[in-house]
């Protein structure tokens, strides 16, 4: 409809008619009053917290941006169905309401933030720094415009964020996890188990005879929805981003060399060292340990004696900036290779450091980095061109042109996909190609329709315009179309049923005194062992489902679990359980304490926000929420 209005108003006659229509509407406001015209105003509100209203369109934008962000992280678009399955819809709603509640509380408390502090935050934000590393006003304007902000609106938003942080910081001040909690969680996380297990696969299931036509037809009838053809859509899109536009720009050697000289210190690779460290609670223990090391004891043997794993002491190849404790960093980068430091008083205790391999710093030549520098400069310059192309593209779209027509007129290359489903797969089941990584154009197209004038998607500092050209409805497939898939699924189900029965029989025999090795030989398999397995272990031969089941099983008891694939089952026995001692001075415990601190802070702030919401009143328009998140589709 909007495109029709735009087409109608693109000539002098249409403009005259539209002027008369708008004049009548304006006159109606004067005669009848605005209240009647906007009688259904509340229907456009998705949530209300105190005096703050969150509009449906505002939440739609927030929700869409979150889906796009996650899509870029996953490397593939995230559909509305997947987002709801993850609970993302409720999380974004809760976060939006919580922010509004904190804003209301800040107003009630009369909190404020100075302009000087807000500007300091903006100037120090790395997102707004140019190639030379300084605040770039043009980049600032382009970046905030990309996310729909004016300068005034962005500053206002940053002020709200700062005030929220003030409240949250005050509410959570002084929180600290107890020693009992830290020790209990450490024991839980670091508990280790040794597991003997036997894998049963298709070989142990025996021969599976092909199903009869009647059996296959009956199996298919009971599971028709699993083999249903999804809805497909034909879509076209064009992307205009700084990276793409930057390819058209030419950067001279002189301009690139100027940036090279300004950033010479940042372009090289810093010196790196293989650093190992042990932390001691006091200087006396550290000195004693240093004496034993000087006497010939190896760093590794001392670590084992203290119950430390290699990962507890090895910091790996690291630059000086990668070591959190500055005192330890200074000591580590002042020693020659193979040397062990004297005790170093640090932030987390007294450290003894050993230096292994040293990789010297490397200063690149201009020629080796010129290509990347030119690319960065071109991309930076392209931001203004992106804005110009955005305006021209919107003008073409406003004149009634489709994406393909508008793109071609501006010399851009549109992409057309003839048929793609919600999961981003083509008719042949293969993933769609030709869509930039992280671009969520497919799920956006499935929330639109043929003939709809869609708003552009903000992507990688630029914009993507798209049209839905056709819709191929979902339908039930016939057995002949998917016979191979149905037969393969039937076979997998048969194998799984047999393996589950065989595993249950083995567990019963083991409970009655049988030996796992004997049962493995009888099944034509072998016993494998996984030692010192932790709860969060990811092992190549043992799936996480079996590890989880083993940690629910007492020592010397047996159990079973599904394997890594459809045709695998696992029978196991827990042969040993151990809990390493808790070293409250270790880096792992300090990281655990930080994690618990953040959790306690989040919980405290969440309770505070919940109380605010109850006090000032919170209402949610469930119908609008369902419409935005696709729950009513």
The portion of residues forming beta strands comes to 15-25%
Helical content stands at 40-55%
Would you identify the regions where 5 or more consecutive residues have pLDDT less than 50?
1-41
Q: Give Rg in angstroms.
A: 32 Å
Mean pLDDT: 83
Q: Total helix count?
A: 27
Keywords:
disordered N terminus; 633 residues; alpha+beta; globular; four-stranded antiparallel β-sheet
Plain-language structure description:
The two termini are 22 Å apart. The protein is 51% helix and 16% strand. By secondary structure, it is an alpha+beta fold. The protein is built from 27 helices and 15 strands.
Produce a short descriptive summary.
By secondary structure, the chain is of the alpha+beta class.
Topology:
Elements: H1 2-8, H2 12-32, H3 34-37, E1 45-49, E2 52-55, H4 56-74, H5 80-86, H6 88-109, H7 115-124, H8 137-146, H9 151-172, H10 179-190, E3 192-201, H11 202-205, H12 213-222, E4 232-240, H13 242-246, H14 253-262, H15 264-267, E5 272-280, H16 283-294, H17 299-305, H18 310-313, E6 314-319, H19 326-332, E7 344-345, E8 350-359, H20 366-398, H21 403-409, E9 415-420, H22 441-446, E10 457-459, E11 462-472, H23 483-511, H24 516-522, E12 527-533, H25 544-550, E13 558-562, E14 568-578, H26 587-616, E15 618-620, H27 622-629
């Amino acid at each position: 409809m909007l495109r029709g209005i735009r087409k109608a108003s693109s000539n002098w006659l249409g403009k005259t008619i539209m002027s008369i229509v708008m004049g009548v509407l304006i006159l109606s406001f004067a005669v009848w009053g605005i209240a009647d015209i906007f009688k259904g105003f509340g229907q456009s509100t998705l949530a209300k917290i105190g005096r703050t209203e969150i509009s449906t369109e505002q939440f739609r934008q927030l929700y869409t941006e979150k889906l796009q962000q996650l899509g870029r992280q996953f490397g593939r678009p995230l559909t509305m169905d997947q987002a709801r399955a993850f609970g993302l819809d409720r999380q974004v709603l809760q976060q939006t309401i919580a922010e509004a509640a904190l804003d209301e509380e800040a107003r009630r408390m009369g909190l404020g933030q100075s302009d000087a502090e807000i500007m300091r935050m903006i100037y120090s934000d790395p997102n707004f720094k140019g190639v030379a590393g300084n605040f770039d006003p043009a980049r600032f304007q382009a970046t905030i415009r990309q996310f729909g902000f004016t300068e005034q609106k962005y500053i206002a938003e940053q002020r709200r964020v700062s005030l929220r942080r003030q409240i949250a910081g005050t509410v959570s001040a002084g929180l600290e996890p107890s020693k009992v909690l830290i020790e209990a969680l450490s024991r839980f996380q670091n508990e280790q188990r040794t597991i003997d297990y036997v894998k049963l696969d298709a070989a142990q299931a025996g021969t599976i005879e092909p199903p009869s036509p009647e059996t296959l037809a009956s199996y298919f009838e009971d599971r028709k929805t699993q083999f249903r053809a999804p809805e497909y859509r034909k879509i076209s899109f064009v992307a205009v981003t700084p990276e793409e536009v930057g390819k058209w720009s030419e950067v001279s050697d002189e301009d690139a060399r100027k940036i090279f000289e300004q950033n010479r210190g940042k372009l090289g690779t810093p010196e790196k060292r293989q650093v190992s460290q042990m932390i001691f609670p006091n200087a006396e223990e550290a000195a004693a340990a240093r004496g034993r090391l000087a006497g010939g004891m190896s760093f590794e043997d001392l670590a084992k004696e203290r119950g430390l794993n290699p990962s507890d002491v090895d910091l790996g190849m690291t630059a000086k900036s990668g070591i959190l404790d500055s005192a330890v960093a200074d000591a580590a980068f002042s020693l020659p290779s193979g040397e062990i430091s004297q005790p170093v008083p640090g932030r987390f205790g007294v450290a003894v450091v050993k230096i292994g391999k040293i990789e010297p710093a490397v200063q690149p030549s201009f020629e080796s980095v010129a290509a990347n520098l030119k690319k960065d400069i071109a991309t930076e310059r392209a931001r203004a061109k992106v804005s110009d192309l955005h305006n021209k593209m919107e003008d073409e779209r406003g004149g009634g042109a489709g994406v393909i027509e508008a793109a071609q007129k501006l010399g851009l290359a549109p992409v057309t996909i003839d048929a793609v489903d919600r999961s981003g797969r083509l008719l042949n089941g293969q993933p769609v190609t030709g869509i930039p990584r992280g671009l969520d154009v497919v799920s956006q197209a499935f929330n639109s329709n043929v003939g709809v004038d869609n708003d552009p998607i903000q992507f990688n500092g630029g914009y993507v315009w798209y049209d839905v050209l056709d819709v191929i409805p979902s339908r039930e497939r016939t057995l002949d179309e998917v016979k191979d898939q149905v037969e393969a699924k039937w076979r997998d189900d048969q194998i799984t049923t047999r393996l589950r029965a065989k595993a249950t029989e083995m567990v019963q025999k083991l409970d009655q005194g049988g030996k796992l090795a004997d049962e493995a030989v009888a099944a034509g398999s072998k016993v494998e062992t996984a030692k010192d397995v932790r709860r969060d272990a990811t092992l190549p031969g043992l799936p996480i489902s079996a590890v989880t089941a083993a940690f629910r099983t007492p020592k010397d008891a047996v159990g079973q679990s599904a394997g890594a694939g459809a045709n695998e089952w696992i029978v196991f026995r827990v042969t040993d359980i151990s809990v390493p001692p808790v070293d409250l001075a270790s880096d792992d415990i300090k990281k655990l304490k930080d994690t618990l601190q953040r959790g306690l802070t989040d919980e405290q702030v969440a309770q505070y926000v919940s109380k605010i919401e109850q006090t000032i009143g919170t209402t949610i328009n469930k119908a609008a929420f369902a419409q935005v998140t696709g729950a009513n589709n």
